[in-house]
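Human: You know discrete backbone vocabularies at least as well as I do. Show me how you would write down a chain together with its backbone fold. No explanation is needed for now; the record alone will do.

Assistant:
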Amino acid sequence: MNIIFKYRMLSDESDHFVRDFEVFPDMKLSEFSDFLLDALHYDKCMVSIFKADEQWRPIEEFSEIDLGDDIPGAPRSMDSVRLMDVTSDFHERIIYTFDMLNNRSYYLELLDMQRPQADLEYPRVAFEHAPVPDQYDPEATEDSGSIFEEMMSDYNEFDGDDGYDDEF
């Protein structure tokens, strides 16, 4: 494939958790899910993927279980849908639900489409910040430095500088 999709993953359990993934858009959703579980170091589990609107409301569900076409409104099988069939425009969103009973999910947004680099292997984790929330215990999530605070620390040089005069 001549293009790579770059997704940013966030969690509502940790303001600090960020992952960027670069993947082939022709991956089946089931392959994408397996890649995410592996990248997060999670055990194999039942997941659903939802196409979401700009307010993160689910639009369409894709399931690991193939319920066939006989049931109206049943989710489509992840084995029959490619990633590019779900998101193909910038800022389109996916909800990756890995714990149905406790309604725990990750939120992914398509940030970029680019040509693959010859010296890199795909799919891959392109960026990571903060520990991954625990798969089984959301209370065990370790809170470490905010990504926002870390990125903005370069601009704190005027903090406490009373000699700085912004009046003319």
